[in-house]
Structure formats: structure tokens, C-alpha cells
Amino acid sequence: MSDASDDELAQELECLESIYADKYSYDTRKNTFSVTLQAEEDEDDRAGRGKVEFGVGLLPNFGLTITFKQPENYPDVPIEYDLEHEENIVEEEEEDEKEAHIQKIKMPDPFWFQDFRKIITTACEENLGSIMAFSVCSDLQDGLTQLCEDLHEERQERISTLRQEMEDARTKQLVGTPVTKESFEAWKIRFQAEMKTLLGEEHARIEREMADRPTGKTIFLNKMGRTEEGEFDMGELIDASEKVEVDENLFDGDNLDDLDGLEDELADLDADMQQKV
């Protein structure tokens, strides 16, 4: 590479160091330089996406570290890079000495991680012939911030929907469902259909119970048939409480003569009453 190219490459490193400060690092042994990027987000949003609400899962940290290496013939060829997801980036927080010896488990990259390789490829293609590390970092930063906003908004909408559903269910338990003309008509149709079914079942049940039961006419005819055979008296059809006992002595000859004299006595009594008046 020419001296001019060396100056240009050095300026690229200086530019990144001045812009990203403590997020920039240079490895003299490997001759690589790295930049750590984090989505720009509100502190409350950052804390909120780390809590499970209404069963909605957490969002991973929107941060990554890209390590560059300037290849031979750069910048006429794309810059070489290695991309790593940052699980958690906490500014100005020192690692606890008691936990410094504990080896952290590498977690799988989030679902959106591979999309950022496409961003890098596009930025390199657009900047061939000129230093491109800063352009790549700038596009990655914008992509992280936009992705964070979109996924956070989507998550909050889901949480809001579930919260509203829970509140609606609680309100419904307390006050019931408001009755409208449409809901009443729908209920009326269902009610009439249910009553028709119940009445039909009851009617069928009564018919089944009455199927083997003799009618009054059948009972009467059966008893009349027994009379013809001398086994039945019509008096059996009359309830004992309705029978009237008649004293036949009241209708003998002497008593009938007394009734004839009674008519004359009543006529004389009526005449006396008219004279007094």
C-alpha cells in the first residue's frame, strides 16, 4: 500500500476513536479494531423490555460489537469484519470481582441478528474505493435504533391489548353485559328455540307415559261389559258419597191423606191474614 493509503487508513482509525471513544478499541497484536454499538432508547423502555408482562416475553438487548480488519487492497475491496451480539451493555458499571472468574454462557444470537450482515454488505458495496468503517458503523447504529423502536412498540401494543382484555373481563364480571337491541334479538331467538325443544321433549314424554294407560271411555266400556255378564252393577259407577237414602215410609197412604188436609189449612190461614190487613 502507498503512504497515502497508510495515512488514509490511519485517519479512519482516528475518526472512529474520536467518535465512539470508550466504545472503540484497537488490538495491536491482531491489527484489528472494534466498535461496540447500542440502540438509542429511553431508559424506561430499556428497563421495561426486561420484564415479563401478561406473558409477553422479553426483548433481547439491541447491541452488537463489530471488529474490523483492513485487508490488502482496501478500500478497493470490502473491509473484513466479525459481528458479535452484545447480550447486555451497562455503561460505567464495573464487573464484580467475586464473579470475575465465572465463565459466562454464550447465548444464541437473536432472530434479527443476521439481518445486520445484509446492512454491512450493502454499506460496503456503496462505499467501495473509499474508507468504509465509519459508514458501516453509522448504518448499523441506525438499524439497531429503528429495530428497537419497532419491536418495543409492537410489544407494548400486545401488552396493552392483553391488559384491556383483562380489564374488560373484570368489568363484565362486575356489571354484566350491556343489553342492546341486537343482543336481545339474538337472545330471544335462542330462548325460543330452547323452549321449543324443551316443550317437544316434555310432550313426547307425556305421550310415552299415556301410551299404555287406559282412557275413561275404555274403563267405562270394560265395566259395561262386566254388567252384561252379571258381574257389575251400575251403582258401582256412583260414588258412595253421592248416594241418597230415601225413607219409603214417608210415602204410605196415611201420610198422603195428611197432605190433602194441609192444603185446606193453608187456604184458611191466608184468608185470615187478608182480613187483618
Written account of the structure:
The protein has 277 residues and is α+β, with helices and mostly antiparallel strands. It has a domain at 3-90 and 106-173: Ubiquitin Conjugating Enzyme (Roll), CATH 3.10.110. It is built from 7 helices and 4 strands; from the N terminus they run αββαββααααα. It has helices spanning 3-20, 43-48, 115-126, 133-175, 181-211, 216-228, 253-276; strands at 24-27, 32-38, 63-69, 80-85. It has a 4-stranded antiparallel β-sheet with strand order 1-2-3-4. Helix 3 packs antiparallel against helix 4 (133-175). The longest helix has 43 residues, at 133-175. The radius of gyration is 54 Å and the shape is rod-shaped. The termini are far apart. The model is unreliable at 90-95 (pLDDT under 50).
- Helix count from the secondary structure assignment: 7
What is the assigned CATH homologous superfamily of the domain at 3-90 and 106-173? Ubiquitin Conjugating Enzyme
Q: Level of helix content?
A: 40-55%
Residue-averaged pLDDT: 78
CATH architecture type of the domain at 3-90 and 106-173: Roll
- Placed side by side, the strands forming the largest sheet appear as 1-2-3-4
Proportion of residues in extended strands: 5-15%
Which structural category do the helix and sheet elements fall into? alpha+beta
